[in-house]
């Protein structure tokens, strides 16, 4: 069964906290009443959590790549020494 675009937008607003307070109260009542809506909200939260984990891992890999380029490249010796000096003196 497909979830409508309107429902997705409404769930997104609820989950990210941009829904007006009175709307959120009504939406929470609908969640309690409608098991399919409750499941869709839960799944939406799980998808967002997975996306955050994926992006964290991707960012970590990109940072490690930059670190390796800056600290393992012989042409960047002066930069590396400048950074190391800051942390030795800090």
Overall description:
- The model has no long low-confidence stretch (mean pLDDT 91).
- 84% of the residues lie in helices and 0% in strands.
- The protein starts with a helix and ends with a helix.
- It is mainly alpha-helical and 90 residues long.
- The protein is built from four helices and no strands.
- The chain has one domain (5-89).
Give the structure's gist in a few sentences:
This protein has helices spanning 5-16, 21-33, 35-72, 77-89. With 90 residues, the chain is mostly helical.
User: What portion of residues is helical?
Assistant: over 70%
Q: What is the string of SSEs from the N terminus onward?
A: HHHH
Tally of contiguous helical segments: 4
Rg, please?
Answer: 23 Å
Structural class: mainly alpha
Shape: elongated
Averaged pLDDT: 91
Q: Distance between the terminal alpha carbons, to the nearest Å?
A: 59 Å
Query: How many beta-strand elements?
Result: 0
| Count of domains | 1
The share of residues in extended strands comes to under 5%
Low-confidence stretches: none
Biggest sheet features: none
